[in-house]
Amino acid sequence: MIAVLTKFPHLRQDFAASLVVFLVALPLCVGVAVASGVPAELGLVTGIVGGLVTGVMRGSSLQVSGPAAGLTVLVFEAVQEFGLPALGVIVLAAGLIQLAMGALKLGRWFRAISVSVVEGMLAGIGLVLIAGQLYSAAGLKAPTTGVDKILGLPGAVVDALGSGTALTSLAVGAGTVAVLVLWKKLPGKAQTVPGALAAVLLATVVTQVFGLSIATVEVNGLLGSIQPPGSEAFGELANPAIFGTILAFTLIASAESLFSAAAVDRLHDGPRTEYDKELMAQGAGNAVCGALGALPMTAVIVRSSANVAAGARTKASRVMHGVWLLLFAALLPSALALIPLPALAGILVHAGFKLIPFKAIGPLWRSHRGEALILVATAVSIVAVNMFEGVLIGLALSVAKTAWEASHLKLEIVDKGAGPIQAHLSGNATFLRLPKILDSLESLPQDRPVELDLSGLHHLDHACRTALENWAERHSSVGTEPVRVTEPEPVRATASQP
């Protein structure tokens, strides 16, 4: 024992942390799977792979991977459109693309994606997730599209009020959410048990003690649920639509994982994330999940922050959490059949609310209104259209905003009635704004001297410089005093070089 502790000096801390992460991950793995429309055991398979495969690889040493609420809507749509067997093909392809991107050192570029697009993506997912799980909490069938789920809620409330079974089911779901919200207000010792696990256990006990007739998790057995994709599933690759879904899986899973890694790095003082290696670790995990026909994985901030808070020091904690999930799935699968579905719906409703950045929208609107609009537009697009196209709309808006800012230019004319006219340019002078610049300058009186101040420019491209030189030459050609130009600082510094 002493030899083991000498070789692994942080084993005790990692062992304790792994148990906490296991207890946090267990209900989430099952809940995400059920909400995604796949067997509950497949969520456990993804959690196991996240621990035993991704967990041993280099990248981010303390963040934990598994099935994520952020992909629930996309997975559900994919299963509905292409079928469960094709899910493995989609996840496998996404994993291979992630491996390739990591090998090409593209991981760091995901940090260049606008935070507003990512937050808008998560907000849109959260809205659709909440709406869909409210139906599940009442034991009702949810509509297929995000808009229909939201618009159908008033009718669902009427249906639930007229059914005693639906009201009972909804009460269990609401009770689960209440436990999750109130659990954080309990004394610290009570919070040793994760809130999600406590909520599920309490809902299960209440359901069994009072003999409530509400739906519970359907159990197929671990081996019975694993269905590697066959030739028919790979035949779906002939459908061009599947490639958009693969791209969406890749983009969203990668962005969520690497943004999570950046957040986890701020929680501890250990080694920093190696982004390209982390992307490859996620790719390897998704490739294995795809080969097993399981759910896609991402790094999950809830489990990762629980891992850090529990005192984890090395990657051993996340590997051991995968071992505990495997033992549970192998030895206690029948325990899943006792879990009421409304309790899992309550957990995901709570998770959906946490995906929506309520506190960030106000300050963002006051300081960066354009970014706030992108966030809202991305979320609305995901609800109104679908996940993939909604993210593309957000990215397009972000690029358009950047292009507009890159070409933003302010021209101020100061004419005191006597002496030279002063023209001050500030911002970014690019060919996109060239017509506006020339129209304003050419409207100045030809018989007056002009002082053109370019010191406020952050950027002056070649097309603008050439056009300004030509204008200055034309303005001075009628005998007017030559235009006096004050160059931007970078230009003046460059000109001074020998």
Structural commentary:
The chain is α/β, with parallel strands linked by helices and 498 residues long. The chain folds into two domains: 400 residues, no CATH class; 87 residues, 2-Layer Sandwich (Transcription Regulator spoIIAA). The chain is built from 23 helices and six strands. The strands form two sheets. It has a four-stranded mixed β-sheet, with helices on one face. The radius of gyration is 29 Å and the shape is elongated.
Number of helical segments with 4 or more residues = 23
Tally of distinct domains: 2
Helix content: 55-70%
- Strands of the largest sheet, in order across it? 3-4-5-6
Q: What would the average pLDDT be, to the nearest integer? A: 87
How would you sum up this structure in a few lines?
This protein has 498 residues and is an alpha/beta fold. It has helices spanning 2-7, 11-35, 40-52, 72-82, 84-103, 115-137, 146-151, 153-161, 164-183, 195-209, 222-225, 231-234, 241-265, 275-291, 301-309, 316-331, 341-355, 358-367, 369-384, 387-406, 434-442, 462-476, 489-495, and strands spanning 64-66, 298-300, 409-414, 421-429, 450-460, 484-486. The protein folds into 2 domains: 2-401, no CATH class; 409-495, STAS domain (Transcription Regulator spoIIAA, 2-Layer Sandwich).
Keywords:
alpha/beta, Transcription Regulator spoIIAA, two-stranded antiparallel sheet, 23 helices, 6 strands, 7% strand, elongated, transmembrane, SLC26A/SulP_dom, transmembrane helix
Topology of this protein?
Elements: H1 2-7, H2 11-35, H3 40-52, E1 64-66, H4 72-82, H5 84-103, H6 115-137, H7 146-151, H8 153-161, H9 164-183, H10 195-209, H11 222-225, H12 231-234, H13 241-265, H14 275-291, E2 298-300, H15 301-309, H16 316-331, H17 341-355, H18 358-367, H19 369-384, H20 387-406, E3 409-414, E4 421-429, H21 434-442, E5 450-460, H22 462-476, E6 484-486, H23 489-495
Helix pairs in contact: 2-3, 2-10, 2-15, 2-16, 2-17, 3-14, 3-16, 4-5, 5-13, 5-14, 6-17, 6-19, 6-20, 9-10, 9-17, 13-14, 13-15, 18-19, 19-20, 21-22
